[in-house]
Structures are given as structure tokens and as C-alpha cells.
Amino acid sequence: MNAPLNHPLPLLDLDVLRTFVAIAETGSFTTAANAVFRTPSAVSMQIKKLEDILGRSVFARDARSVTLTTDGEMLLGYARRLLSINREVVSKFIIPDIVGVVRLGSPDDYGERVLPHVLKRFAQSHPSIAVDVTIDQSSNLRRRMDDRALDITLLTNSYKTSALGAEVLLTEPIVWAGAKGGCAHLREPLPVSLWEEGCAWRAGALEALGRAGRNYRIAYMSAHTAGQRAAIMSDLAVAPLPKSFLGNDMVELCPKDGMPDIGTYNLAMVVAPDASAPVKAVADHIRATFELFRETGKF
After folding, report:
1. Which of 97, 120, 148, 174 has the largest count of CB atoms under 10 Å?
2. SS3 of 209, please?
3. Per the domain annotation, does 6 fall within a domain?
4. How far, in Å, CA of 212 to CA of 206, rounded?
């Protein structure tokens, strides 16, 4: 029920809103409970309390999934804003005001998919730190680090190799991606879309094709993830991608489809040995982002 106009409106608990946002983002009460360090039953009680206060249902539940209701979608925007304001206010008093510029390098794939989320959240908690981003191939980023042109860089490495001094953030399978309902994988020679020389995914894919004795031709080559996706979705070619990069319009092609296993790759981070406080703050934020991904599967 709506509160009578002559009574003060109730205050929403930020901890409850944090739980609400976690459920909305993960689509699971159990996963959200782990993220906010509560039991699933405690999380359920929090949401019941929230729905009682608002007099509306915020989630539609069935045996397999949890989705936002129309009211829940409206609340999500407000909840994120309230939590953002809370972080900003608290950080002004608790977190030292670190000021500086951090030069961050990233391969194109993670620059497109992950960095927007990382930088948005980092700017909310550290508004006085500017992050300058360079997008390039891992081999070039490694040289920039050696030349001290970058403070931090992300690198993709083959499962067989790792960059000196690199901290592995994620190990993930590389799979063959094809268009849903496509037939590119049935053609001879196999049309393949690849990145330029120096890409860990390219090296693993070509090695796998060589071991399997599969004839192939490079039908499409691009240094950018968007170009690879275009080649896949138009069914011009198949391409090696990290498994988490597969979209709803793509399928994973397996040995039963005539495609050999590629293996895994590492995403690693290299931080300058003489890192300043701003650089350490960015590195810690990146670590936290990938810890969350390993737990929830979402950035």
C-alpha cells in the first residue's frame, strides 16, 4: 500500500538496494547472495522487505530464472544512482584523495568488452584519477611497457607462454565460433577469420588446424573484435574466440562439427614495478573486476 500523505515516507536501506542490484545483474538469488556475503534466505528476506515497503513486486520468479518486473526495472535505475551517490560521498571522507594520471594498455577485445565497465566504476570511486587508454596488440603493449610508455597493461597470452612479471587474471577456453545456423565450417578449404600476427588466439587456432590436418584459407583478417564478429555473423568464416565472447547469434563449433580443440589462453596484467598510488588503485580495481567475473560470469 502507498504511505498516507500525512506520514513520512519510509527510507530505503542501501544494503537492501545493493542486494537488489546484485540479483538484477546476476539473475540469481544464490549468486547475488555470494556477491553480497549473505545467505540466500537472508537475501530473500531483504527483497521481501523491499517489496513490502514499496507495495510492488520487483522480481518475477519461476523455477529457473529471476527477471525484473516493470516496477523492478524502474527501481534499478534509482538504486544504481543512490548507490553511486553513496560511494561518492563515503569516498570523500574515507578514501584518501588520490590525484594523478594512469596510462593503461589493453588489447582491442577487452578494451571493447570490459574496459567501459571498469572505467565507469573506477571513476565513481576515484574521480581525481584520469586514465589514458591505449588499445593495441598484446605484443606492442608489452613493448610499450618495456619502454615505460604505459603504467599498466592487459595482455592475452597463449596457454603455453606467459609474459615475464605478468599476473594472470583469467584463464579461459578458446573455441571456434560460427554463425548460428551457418555452414562456413563445412566448406573446404575452411574459411577462417583471424587477427594479425602476434595474437594468442590466432597462434592456437592455426596450431590446432595443423595438428588436425584440416585445410584452411584466411578468408578475413581484422585487428578488431567488431570485424571478427562481422565475419562470423555473415557466415563468411569461422573464428577463434574466448568462450565468454560468444553472443546469442553465434554457436560454439566442436570436434563433432569437424573443428579441432584449440585449448586455453591467459589474460594477464603487468604493472610497472615503481607503481604510484594511482596506478596501484587502478590495478586493484581491475583485479576486483575479474574476481567478480570468475564468481558471477558477468562484468
Report:
1. 174
2. helix
3. no
4. 10
Strand-pair partners of 67: 60
Distance of CA 186 to the CA centre of its chain: 31
pLDDT given for residue 54 in this prediction = 95
User: Where does a domain end: 68, 93, 118?
Assistant: 93
Read off the amino acid at residue 113: R
Q: 203: left (phi > 0), else alpha (psi -120 to 50), else beta?
A: alpha
Could you read off the pLDDT of 215-265 as tens digits, one per residue? Answer: 999 998 887 778 888 999 999 999 999 898 888 889 999 999 999 999 988
| CATH for 235 | 3.40.190.290
In whole angstroms, how far apart are CA 246 and each of 114, 147, 233, 239? Answer: 14, 35, 11, 11
Rounded CA separation 51/59 (Å): 9
Domain span at 178: 101-298
CATH of the domain at 43: 1.10.10.10
Amino acid code (one letter) for 52:
D
For 210, half-sphere exposure in the C-beta direction (CA atoms, 13 angstrom radius) is 6
User: Mean per-residue pLDDT for 188-193?
Assistant: 95
Q: Are residues 108 and 223 in the same domain?
A: yes
Report the predicted TM-score, pTM, of the whole model to 2 decimal places: 0.67
Task: For helices 70-94 and 14-26, give the axis angle rounded to 10 degrees.
Answer: 120
DSSP for residue 11 = P
Report the SS3 class of residue 39.
coil
